[in-house]
Amino acid sequence: MSTKIEEILGHVFSRPELLREALTHRSVAGRRGGFSNERLEFIGDRVLGLLIAEWLAERFPSEQEGELGRRLAHLVSQPVLAEIADAVGLGAVIAVGPGAARAGVKQQAAVLADALEAAIGAVYLDGGLEPARGCVRRAWDTAMTELAAPPKDAKTALQEWLQARGHDLPEYVVATRTGPSHSPEFIITVTSGKQTGTGVAKSKRAAEQAAATDLLRQLQR
Questions:
Q1: Which terminus of the chain, N or C, has less C-beta within 10 A?
Q2: C-alpha 31: how far from chain center
Q3: Distances (CA, A) of 140 to 95, 111, 144, 207, 212
C-alpha cells in the first residue's frame, strides 16, 4: 500500500513513518499510541501555500496581488483539496478508528483535505522542497490549468447569486470551535431560506468561504 501512495506522491520515503503518520486520522492515533496527521497537516498547509503562490507568480506574471490571492485561496480551499485527494485515491488508505469508519469519515471533505496536506508535509520533511514541489505540481495540474480567470471570492459570489434571484441574504453561524488555540478548527454554517452550506477550516474566514462554496454549489445544481 505504501508503494502505491509513494507512486501517487512521486516520492519514495526514506522515513516511511512520516507517510504512516500522514495517513493516520486522530480517531485511531490514540489507539495506536502515536501521532495523528494533524502536526503534518499544519506543516503541509504552509508548504502548499508557498508552492502554489510560487507557481501562480510564475504562471501569471502580469497579475497583481489581489488577483493572485483569489487564485491562491481557491486552489488551497477545502473543496479543491478534497477533490484532488479523492481523485488520487487517498481516502482509501487513511487509517481511521472503527467508529469513524462506520460514520463514513474517510469520505468527509475536511478529512480528505487534511490528509492531502499532511502527505505534502511528510514529503517536505522527508525530502525537502523540491519533491514537495513536484508532488504539488502534478496533483494540482488540472486545477491550475482550468483556472483561466481569477475566481470571485466565494462569499461575494454567493451574495451576488442570491441577490440576483431575490433570495434571502446569507447568514453565517459558528456551529463549533474546537482544538487548541494555536490550531483551532471552525465549523461554520451559512443559510439562505431552507438551504444550508457547511464549511470546516482552521480559521473562521476560511470556514466561511468553504461554507459559501458549499451552499453555492447546492444552489447551482
A1: C
A2: 26
A3: 24, 18, 6, 21, 22
User: Residues spanned by CATH 1.10.1520.10 within the chain?
Assistant: 2-146
Superfamily name and number for 2-146:
Ribonuclease III domain (1.10.1520.10)
Could you report the per-residue pLDDT of 18-39, keeping only the tens digit for each?
999 999 988 886 555 567 899 9
pLDDT value at 181 more than 60: yes
- Active-site annotation, residues: 45, 117
Query: For 85-123, what is each residue's pLDDT tens digit?
Result: 999 888 888 888 888 888 888 888 889 999 999 999 999
**Residues 150, 72: contact at Cβ < 8 Å?**
no
Cell numbers at 1, concatenated: 500500500
Name the pTM for this structure: 0.75
CATH class for the region spanning 154-220? alpha beta
Report the phi/psi class of residue 10: left, alpha or beta, with left for phi > 0 and alpha for psi in -120 to 50: left
Coil, helix or strand at residue 162:
helix
DSSP 80-142: HHHHHHHHTTGGGG-B--HHHHHTTGGG-HHHHHHHHHHHHHHHHHHH-HHHHHHHHHHHTHH
| Region(s) of the chain under CATH 3.30.160.20 | 154-220
53 CB-contact burial (10 Å; exposed 0-12 / middle 13-18 / buried 19+): middle
